[in-house]
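hey so u asked for the seq, here:
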Amino acid sequence: MSDDKISEIQNSMIRMEHVLENVSTKQDAVAADIRDVKNAIYKPDDGLYARLRDIEQWKGSLSKFIWTFALSIAALFADKLFNIL
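ran it, structure tokens below
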């Protein structure tokens, strides 16, 4: 092989090495992002599922309060109606 071909092959190998280093760096960044997403979703105290659980519990409590309030108003209305009659 001639010296030009050898230089060309060496330059190609160096470019491939740089490209592989960039791919490796980007792969590490993607792995870190995936780890952050996993932590945000599955953390037991402040992850997405914990927030959903808190919202569902709040909705249940609010629903009980609304029913209690509505039944109390209905009972007061019925009491006033019977007092009038």
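The longest helix spans residues 3-42. The mean pLDDT is 88.
lmk if thats what u needed
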